[in-house]
Amino acid sequence: MNTNFLHSDFIIIGAGAAGLFAAGKLTQLGKTVRIIDSEDKPGKKILISGGGYCNFTNIHTSPSHFISDNPHFCTSALSRYSPYHFIELVEKYHIPYHEKVLGQMFCDTSARDIVRMLMFEINQNKLILELQCKVESVTKSDSFFVHTNKGIYSSQSVIVSSGGLSIPKMGASCIGYDIALSFGHTIIPTKPGLVPLIVQAETFPYSDLAGLSIQSEIQTEESPIFKEGLLFTHKGLSGPAILQASSYINHTNSVTINTLIDPSNYAKIAQGDFGKMDWKNALSTIFPKRFAYAWAQYHKQSETYSHYSEKTRKIFADQLMNWQPIIAGNEGYSKAEVTVGGVNTKELSSKTMMSNKIPNLYFIGEVVDVTGHLGGYNFQWAWASAHAISISSN
Length: 394
Ligand SMILES: Cc1cc2nc3c(=O)[nH]c(=O)nc-3n(C[C@H](O)[C@H](O)[C@H](O)COP(=O)(O)OP(=O)(O)OC[C@H]3O[C@@H](n4cnc5c(N)ncnc54)[C@H](O)[C@@H]3O)c2cc1C
Known about the structure:
The chain is about 30% helix and about 25% strand. It has about 400 residues and is of the alpha+beta class. The chain folds into two domains: about 240 residues, FAD/NAD(P)-binding domain (3-Layer(bba) Sandwich), CATH 3.50.50.60; about 130 residues, Beta Barrel (Elongation Factor Tu (Ef-tu), domain 3), CATH 2.40.30.10. The strands form five sheets. Strands 1, 2, 7, 8, 9, 10 and 19 form a seven-stranded mixed beta sheet that branches. A six-stranded antiparallel beta sheet has the order 16-13-14-15-12-17, covered by helices on one side. The two termini are about 35 Å apart. Bound molecules: flavin-adenine dinucleotide. The site of flavin-adenine dinucleotide (FAD) has 39 residues, from helix 1, helix 2 and helix 12. Flavin-adenine dinucleotide (FAD) binds next to helix 1, helix 2 and helix 12.
């Protein structure tokens, strides 16, 4: 192995959202930074985010939009770097953007604008960007030593911003957790989040509806209610509402789906004026026809509307409001947008993101046990947690 002891103030492991943002802040403070990434270009996940348009923040960000074993941990960093700080930066670079829905801010043109901006923010005189370089471990004596497939690099401080386990083909690895464990940290168990769900095949007659979307309200035992779109897939369910709920689901809890979100539709079903119309056609006045037909067929509701008493129609309406599909699993890290769990925040400073066990070792971004809801919150956490380090290094 080539042993190359070039020394820098900081080594940042991972040139993703959090790592690049931290590099910008630190080089502007005059610190020398080496960023190491196993991929061939920086910010790969940013490039595919938001369907290529990067949902870079959410103006409604608050700690309630994050899942963590230690829910208040994120408050400090989020309060010191708000969505409006990032929007100000986006405006400084004249990047066109818009609010899509629910406070979600997207680029008008391309996610590439965000990566370019992050690279411009880095003082190139203070930076060495080491690509296609895989970190294998970190050790410490007077300095830190970062062991890679290209050699060993040393620094005064190490920032672990190596992300979670989602999308392994884009460089995701468990190195951040391994480094944390090697320095005596604990890991809150990880699982795929913001991920499509697989429904037990025998109880899922809707695979032919793949690609169809309906509005819904979804809740799990521990989650808030998510009122967003639900998308049918060949294996089960996806769409924003399901992705949100998926981050809360474990092996034991169930998910309840209300497909009848407009209260006036309950009355329409129970007391409507559909006479001899087929029940499935009556349902089609509320739902997309394909869903209405499939639902009626699965529930053996084959008669005309007036054939059913009002009491029975109310039972049907209740079924549509309380659908509890049997969840067999999820589509795994290859389809998950994030990883829930990570480095235990009880062992990190919420102000500086530094390890409470090892001075000058920091963890930021998705590797930490802070996971955002869908809608730009995960990037806001990446920016805010990276910003926290720069304050402490000033
Ligand atoms: C398809 C998709 C779409 C998304 N869209 C959005 C969105 O629109 N809005 C939003 O807020 N969030 C979105 N997310 C989530 C968001 O991308 C992540 O939460 C965010 O990128 C995390 O930033 P990070 O810097 O912590 O990690 P990452 O951005 O994942 O960066 C980690 C880096 O570490 C590198 N690395 C890993 N292991 C090693 C190693 N051993 N050696 C060297 N380098 C290593 C990786 O190559 C990677 O570049 C999306 C995620 C996916 C998968």
